[in-house]
Design goal:
8-stranded parallel β-barrel, binds zinc ion, alpha/beta, 3-stranded antiparallel β-sheet, binds 3-methyl-2-oxobutanoic acid, 4 domains, about 500 residues, TIM Barrel, 17 helices
């Protein structure tokens, strides 16, 4: 009989700590609904004390998303814990996640407190959280670099004061699988009462070992794995949800483990994360990369055609990769679009669907064949990347070998339309100079990239920009068959994200 491993998704908290990946409240809510469809057991959706925006997002998700446990992060401070409870209390199943660092390095240099003071914080933080909420998770930050005997003392104390889940993070991605396995075993041996709680593992990918360490942790008896979709997260990221889930699904018999994830939702959820955050997935990424199921070599193709098991250890359909790439055209109607979207795993309300249908018709007029990737680019532009302030209304560019490139741009600023024109060394420069003139933005363009959404000369261009202002950095994305329009959309998407981030500073939970 296989044992159940709970999947604790932290895409909306640790994942959001990926540079540039900040999400606004509505974007987080949309993703939270998708994570519920995916079947995660717990979702950590923010750090309510970090900013009013984070608080509101956690509260909204707690009020609206049914099914999984909804978790909010807090330091051991009383104000943090009350704020977390204020936000998660509306959930069907709320959880407060309290954390404090336990390694000497963190205690000495970051928190500047003694081990005794740290233990005091564990006691007060966990008991306060438990007095508010029946489900309390405690994390010993930097556990993998903590003196194991002190860590056991910390775990024992957290359990005594009411923690129901004990999380052992490899915060800086330093552990090795064998070592991490032994650490979990050691805790189970030294603190037998940990059996009353769930042991959790939370591994970062600085050495590319996050998934291996998490699997070692569950083999040693942890029954919760903390993960992010596409492996996004602070620095090199967190353990990837899809890799852990598929490792358990594919090698479950040997591991004696099972998860409750609805695997056919993996690829649609991965795409949604990419579309909302703007963080691309590398083509060779396991499970969700564009090449994950693409066989190039003749020998492999031959083998797969004769018997898929020769080179495929799992099927694309199992993870929700649709093989139906039939195109839509300008004669396709609402029903055709709706059923294609359903096949791709998207369902929208009437208002969103109508907006999408209008945009689809405009695109289909310009482009003979509309592919699934085109639809995803439209969904991202029209529905998912919700502008908090500026929206492109109109763009006209004059450029060529003998003219100074000039742009006329109309932008709506919270509904009020403003227009101006400007020039530049090239058309993109002209567009961006004009946008800066209209918006008064102080942002610096750090990076500009363009890719085509599909093949073909009439393909849509997808522009990604990285913008920076002071210490803030964001990614902006936009797509359109006209690459200059895509460039303008991407820049405005970046400015909207910066605007949101200025009002809601990105939570940095690892600070003291
Ligand atoms: O990496 C880490 O230690 C964390 C904690 C807040 C659990 O993200
Ligand atoms: Zn983390």
């Amino acid at each position: 009989m296989s044992e159940y491993v709970k999947i604790f998704d932290t895409t909306l908290r640790d994942g959001e700590q990926s540079p540039g990946a900040s999400m606004n409240r509505e974007e987080k809510l949309r993703l939270a609904h998708k994570l519920a469809q995916l079947g995660v057991d717990i979702m950590e959706v923010g750090f309510p004390a970090a900013s009013p925006g984070d608080f509101e997002a956690v509260k909204l998700i707690a009020q609206q998303v049914q099914g999984p446990v909804i978790c909010g992060l807090a330091r051991t401070r009383s104000a943090d814990i009350h704020r977390a409870w204020e936000a998660v209390q509306y959930a069907q199943n709320p959880r407060i996640h309290v954390f404090v660092a336990s390694s000497d390095i963190h205690l000495q240099y970051k928190l500047r407190i003694s081990r005794e003071q740290m233990l005091e914080q564990v006691k007060s933080g966990v008991s306060l959280a438990r007095s508010l909420c029946a489900d309390v998770q405690f994390s010993a930050e930097d556990a993998s670099r903590t003196d194991p005997d002190f860590l056991c003392q910390v775990v024992e104390l957290a359990l005594k004061h009411g923690a129901t889940t004990i999380n052992i993070p490899d915060t800086v991605g330093y552990a090795m699988p064998q070592e991490f396995y032994k650490l979990i075993k050691y805790i189970r041996q030294q603190v037998p009462q940990v059996a009353q709680a769930t042991i959790s593992v939370h591994c970062h990918d600085d050495l590319g070992l996050a998934v291996a360490n998490s699997l070692a942790g569950v083999q040693a008896g942890a029954r919760q794995a903390e993960v992010c979709m596409n492996g996004i997260g602070e620095r090199a990221g967190n353990a990837s949800l899809e890799e852990i889930v598929m490792a358990i699904a594919t090698r479950g018999k040997e591991l004696g483990l099972v998860t409750g994830i609805n695997r056919a939702e993996i690829v649609p959820t991965s795409r949604l994360v990419t579309m909302i955050t703007g963080l691309p997935v590398q083509p060779n990424k396991a499970i969700v990369g564009a090449n994950a199921f693409a066989h190039e070599s003749g020998i492999h193709v031959d083998g797969v055609l004769k018997q898929p098991l020769t080179y495929e250890i799992m099927t694309p359909a199992e993870v929700g990769l649709t093989t139906n790439w039939l195109v839509l055209g300008k004669h396709s109607g609402r029903a055709g679009l709706k059923s294609r979207l359903m096949e791709m795993g998207y369902e929208f309300g009437e208002e969103d669907f109508e907006r999408l249908f209008t945009a689809f018709k405009v695109l289909a007029d310009k482009k003979k064949e509309v592919f699934n990737e085109d639809l995803e680019a439209l969904i991202a532009d029209e529905i998912l990347r919700i502008p908090s302030r500026w929206r492109l209304e109109y763009l006209n560019i004059v450029s060529g070998t003998v003219t100074v490139p000039t742009a006329t741009v109309k932008i709506s600023d919270n509904g009020q339309v403003m227009q101006d024109f400007g020039s530049g060394v090239g058309p993109v420069d002209a567009v961006y100079n004009t946008i800066v003139k209209i918006t008064g933005s102080q942002a610096r363009l750090l990076r500009f990239g363009i890719a085509s959404v599909t093949g073909g000369l009439d393909a849509q261009g997808e522009v990604t920009v990285r913008l920076g202002q002071d210490e803030l950095e964001v990614l902006g994305k936009g797509s359109d068959p006209d690459i200059l329009v895509a460039a303008a959309k991407a820049y405005l998407n970046g400015l909207n994200r910066l605007e949101y981030l200025k009002a809601n500073p990105r939570p940095v939970p690892n600070g003291d």
